[in-house]
Amino acid sequence: MGSSFGQLFRITTFGESHGGGVGVVLDGCPSRIALSPNDIQQELDRRRPGQSAIVTQRQESDRCEILSGVFEGQTLGTPIAILVRNEDARPEAYREMKDTYRPSHADFTYQAKYGIRNWQGGGRASARETIGRVAAGAVARKVLAFLHPESEIIAYVTDVYDLSAAVDSSVVTRAQVEANAVRCPDKEAARAMMRAIEQARAEGDSLGGIVECVARNFSAGLGEPVFDKLEADLAKAMLSLPATKGFEIGAGFAATRLRGSEHNDAFEIRDKEVRTATNRSGGIQGGISNGEDIVFRVAFKPTATIARAQQTVTTDKTETTLAARGRHDPCVLPRAVPMVEAMAALVLCDHALRQRALAQPD
């Protein structure tokens, strides 16, 4: 159903924002992959709230517990269950939202679909659900390290509001991304972004932006025609993340302003391999990876929760105003970086396993 993702490498996330906990059940992980709680924890720490002054100040340690599927430091090939308990839940802070729909949240639509909703912090629609994705993504990285030892997946912030960074996707490093709280490798742009986010928070407002991601050193052949094209699965993965509103790969929408002669990636032989002279396709052609860097971008809207009075309505259809209280991100971009990486790892791991299943014996 809607809480599951993937084919061979399949995950199901569970939990609500202010319930007992959140987590994931992962099925299809190969056996004998080295895996420890620390492999998962280091990624959860990057997603964790309260890690800097420009993100939500909800205080959660987000310590992971591996409940099944791992024995003596290796995966068993059986389902892996990972749990993170909620520690700083404050459901009483949302009581005013019980009978009032927050603008641009999932309150009204969940009520319309199910006839009931968890009004405590967004429930299932909360970004806290992404803990399960990030935990599963950490496992996917371990599998990819076995299947594609040289591969790496790096996401970073390129835009916040009207500020843009200059980042070379072919050489950017994880260390450069993690060097500042915004997770933007361009130091000058990062400082300007930090100021803009702090100003928006002081004004009770929020900002959106763009996260770019590059996946390097993946072999040609990943992806399934027709409906499971690699970029189609990446798009679904990214647009399933909270607050996402757009996806583009390679030249993306800019390709509409080019002619075919300008956009086409010419083939050449480099290091005795078939390569492309340019990469406007973003590493995918015909829905299948071509061996070049896979480069895509994800647009995130401004955080819907803001500390300003907004017009809305109640469950009994009375017009009113509502000013959000509590803890929220003035900009989701810094914490979205590990989420984007995790979803990319899940898609690439799933397709790598599917490709391995198709491989012909030598």
Strand-helix topology:
Elements (H helix, E strand, L loop, with lengths): L3 E2 L4 E6 L5 E7 L9 H11 L16 E5 L1 E2 L2 E2 L4 E6 L21 H8 L15 H18 L4 E9 L2 E2 L9 H4 L9 H16 L6 E8 L13 H10 L4 E6 L10 H4 L3 E4 L2 E4 L7 E2 L2 E2 L4 E7 L8 E5 L5 E5 L9 H26 L4
Antiparallel strand pairs: 1-2, 2-3, 3-7, 4-7, 5-6, 8-9, 8-10, 10-16, 11-16, 12-13, 14-15, 17-18
Helix pairs in contact: 1-3, 1-8, 3-8, 6-8
Name some characteristics of this structure.
five-stranded antiparallel sheet; about 25% strand; Chorismate synthase, AroC fold; alpha+beta; about 350 residues
Give the helix/strand class. Answer: alpha+beta
User: Which runs of at least 5 residues are low in confidence (pLDDT < 50)?
Assistant: none
- The CATH class label is Alpha Beta
Compute the average pLDDT.
93
Number of strands: 18
